[in-house]
């Protein structure tokens, strides 16, 4: 017993310092529950609130990261299910689809598919490498809102009106991720320090700076898992490009239809202008005839008045001529 060494007493902690994680009474806290229980509790919250709970502690951060990653995969599956249901009800002919009652549903779901592919290409590369999680939980909530709106509404609004909020917040999230977070994550990618040494740049300080030759060689030869991830990423990128090409072709057809409609409208406008010109000419001719009739009527009325005056003058002249004759006759009688 005398030869046994006593363990040194723990160092006194300064007042106000937080206790280590293993010394916290986790059995009486939410964090001390099993992960399944924590996930079932957090399932009642929105993904935006879940993303904000990552600041609580490391354990909560891990649970929230897992829920955010699963949430993005779930919303992708839910979108695929909605799109299959809508496509099953649409006619096969493209010309009949445009006039169908589910045409706007299909347009909204196609735009959501494009947005999901862009988010997948932006975030999932680093999520698969376990460098981060799907950070913007608010984007997941907005995608769910759009999909539920499409499923519950028979006559939805136009696609740009429904997707305005989703496009804004997803674009801001992707821009912020590319500008602020990706430069930090690229330093943590496997092989980033190797490529820097091969080019001649200074290595990033840290544990990776002391790699041996065998470790460098092993990093230069990627494993099957990395090759599989790269192949999956290439497939995802190819699917995104295919979606973008399809959307571009649809937009081109819409532009051609709009141009054709504009040409038809211009032709109708020209015809209407010609008809209006003919009507104006007829109105001018009718006005001219009406003026002639009015002038002739006025002339006839004035002519009748002058005839009466001339008759009166003639009567007076005859009377003046007849008066001396009557006087002569009287004289002769006498």
Structure, explained:
With 334 residues, the protein is mostly helical. Helices cover 74% and strands 0% of the residues. It is built from 11 helices and no strands. It is rod-shaped, with a radius of gyration of 47 Å. The termini are far apart.
What's the topology here?
Blueprint (H helix, E strand, L loop, with lengths): L34 H8 L4 H6 L5 H32 L4 H5 L4 H26 L8 H16 L6 H4 L1 H25 L3 H8 L13 H8 L3 H110 L1
Highlighted features:
334 residues, mainly alpha, 0% strand, rod-shaped, F-box_dom, FBXO28, F-box protein 28
**Form type:** rod-shaped
Low-confidence stretches: 1-12, 14-26, 192-221
Encode the helix/strand succession as letters.
Answer: HHHHHHHHHHH
The class by helix and strand makeup works out as mainly alpha
Oligomeric state as shown: single chain
Beta strand %: under 5%
Question: Counting H and I runs of at least 4 residues, what is the number of helices?
Answer: 11
The total of beta strands comes to 0
Radius of gyration: 47 Å
Main sheet: strands, sense, barrel: none
Distance between the termini: 200 Å
Mean pLDDT: 75
- Fraction in helix: over 70%
Biased composition (Low complexity): 295-308
Organism: Chelydra serpentina
Region (Disordered): 1-23, 293-334
Protein name: F-box protein 28
